């Protein structure tokens, strides 16, 4: 009986992470070590989401250059974002290179995720694939997390090109449906 209850709870938690998000607005946060990687990813994600009529704002338009990400959680900043109509955050980071990765099972809050730093780059020399993790937060709580693997890459530009193509097919349908 214990195993039956555990399996029901486990399966329902998996189903909760796999459901459609119905994204209408998003503040895009890219967690990368290099500043140019953050800007490139925020610009790419903003473009992809705006093409789907999703109201989008990159974090670089909210926080000053070099400002701590934790300032995003200040009440004054939160009030400004809510007044502008933003209540959802899409966080993008690299999960790893050259292996098949699954979404993290750790249900971090947005505050906990913003405390972590990333040591990854969009592309690493000698890597043939890059796995990106997309985490969607609403009300500070995780509502969706997905991993997208971009294979057969040879440089930074090829990663961004593959990401643009695969994101529209694999990740975007579950965000807008």
Descriptive overview:
- The protein is an alpha/beta fold.
- It has one domain: Rossmann fold (3-Layer(aba) Sandwich).
- 39% of the residues lie in helices and 24% in strands.
- It has five helices and five strands.
- It has helices at residues 2-18, 35-50, 75-83, 110-115, 156-176; strands spanning 25-31, 55-58, 88-97, 129-138, 141-151.
- A five-stranded mixed beta sheet has the order 2-1-3-4-5.
- α2 links the parallel β1 (25-31) and β2 (55-58).
- α2 (35-50) crosses α5 (156-176).
- It is globular and about 45 Å long.
- It starts with a helix and ends with a helix.
- The model is unreliable at 1-18 (pLDDT under 50).
Question: Could you provide a short overview of the structure?
Answer:
39% of the residues lie in helices and 24% in strands.
């Amino acid at each position: 009986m214990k195993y039956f209850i555990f399996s029901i709870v486990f399966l329902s938690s998996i189903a909760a992470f796999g459901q459609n998000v119905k994204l209408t607005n998003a503040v895009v946060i890219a967690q990368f070590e290099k500043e140019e990687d953050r800007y490139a990813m925020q610009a790419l994600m903003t473009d992809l989401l705006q093409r789907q009529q999703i109201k989008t704002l990159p974090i670089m338009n909210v926080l000053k250059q070099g400002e701590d990400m934790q300032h995003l959680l200040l009440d004054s900043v939160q009030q400004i974002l809510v007044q502008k109509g933003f209540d959802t955050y899409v966080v993008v980071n690299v999960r790893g290179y050259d292996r098949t990765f699954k979404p993290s099972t750790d249900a971090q809050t947005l505050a906990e995720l913003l405390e972590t730093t990333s040591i990854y780059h969009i592309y690493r020399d000698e890597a043939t694939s890059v796995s990106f993790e997309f985490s969607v937060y609403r009300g500070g709580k995780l509502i969706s997390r997905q991993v997208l693997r971009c294979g057969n890459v040879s440089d930074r530009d090829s990663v961004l090109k593959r990401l643009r193509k695969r994101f529209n097919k694999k990740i975007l349908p579950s965000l807008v449906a």
